[in-house]
Structure formats: structure tokens, C-alpha cells
Amino acid sequence: MGLPPGGKPTLGELCAHVGALRRREVHIVTLTLPSAGPHGLWVATETRDYVFAEERLVPVHQQQVILHEIGHVVCDHDTSPVLSADASRLLMPSLDPALVRRVMGREHGDSEAEREAELVGSLIGGLIGTWNVQPTWSVPPEAREIAERLSSLEAPMPRDRA
Ligand SMILES: [Zn+2]
Questions:
Q1: pLDDT for 37-61, tens place per residue?
Q2: Residue 22 Cα, ligand 1 centroid: separation in angstroms?
Q3: Which residue of 20, 31, 40, 126 has the lowest C-beta tally within 10 Å?
Q4: Residue 55 is part of a domain; what is its CATH number?
């Protein structure tokens, strides 16, 4: 990946580096995600990559989740055909919980891409500094609406009926 030798980059510096390599900005956004889904989500827009991560995780777990998603970005896994079609529906105000589970549940799949992302994420994790201080990630205006809609999914998500 051509990370500069020596000092351990922070997650923020890692994103800047990956963004420079891909010529697409990479943004991390922590937010409240629906409980039924995974803890992390990579959303690729026309010009940028967003890594959304559950904000209620303990920092070490949250970093792991973010690194896994960055692993997908670095490997350039192709999520867009499914995501772009479904995500636009996912992000609509009125939601079908089954759809949310289906779209977000893809992340739990045991595919080659998942294993690759996990491996790359943990390799990167060994290169970067540990998460000492909880950073506050600024949400770019473009992502604000997506972030708000994703967070709003948490409330209407029905609990499993007995
Ligand atoms: Zn994954």
C-alpha cells in the first residue's frame, strides 16, 4: 500500500493515504446503525467512499470494524451494483425492515471478499497506531443526509416477535 515507513499512522492518516491512492476521498462516519445490521458499512458515491461505523461500539471494536470496511475499499471490492440500487431504497424514509436486513446482512456473508477484507483490515491494524483517544469524525455535508437516514432506521426497527 506504500504506507510511509516509520511512524504509525492514525486511522485519519490512513484514510487520507488510501484516498490519495484511489484519488477518491475516504471518510469515516460514526453513527447509530440499526441493531439488526452489521456494525459497519461501506457506501461508495460518485466521488467519495464513506465508511459508516456503529458509534456505540467500544473503541477497539469500532476500529476493527472500520479497518474491515477499509479492507473492502483497499481491495476495491465491487459492492456498487447491489448497493446503489438497494441503498437508494434503503435510505428512503419509509422502509421495509426485511430489505434493510437483506442489504445490510450481506456483510455477514462468508465470501472470499469478506475473508479478504478481514485479512487486509487486520494487516493494516498491525501497522497503525492503537486508538488511544476517541476522535470526533466530522461528517461531510454530502454524507449528512445518508447518516441521518441510517441512524433513523434504528428506531422503527421492530424487535423479533416471539
Ligand atoms: Zn465485510
A1: 778 888 777 777 888 888 899 888 8
A2: 19
A3: 126
A4: 1.10.10
For ligand 1, the distance from its centroid to the CA atom of residue 83, given in whole angstroms, is 13
Distance CA 42, CA 57 (A): 17
Quick one: pLDDT at residue 113? 83
SS (H, E, C) 104-115: HHHHHCCCHHHH
> If you measure from the C-alpha of residue 17 to the centroid of ligand 1, how many angstroms do you get, rounded to a whole number?
21
Cα 89 to Cα 31, 113, 157: the distances in Å are: 19, 24, 16
Interval 96-130: pLDDT, tens: 555 555 555 555 466 788 889 899 999 998 888 76
Q: Which residue has the cell 458509534?
A: 55
Cα of 72 vs centre of ligand 1, distance in Å, is 7
CA–centroid distance, residue 69 to ligand 1 (Å)? 6
State the residue range of the domain holding 93: 11-151
pLDDT exceeds cutoff 90 at 18: yes
Q: In the chain, how many domains are there?
A: 1
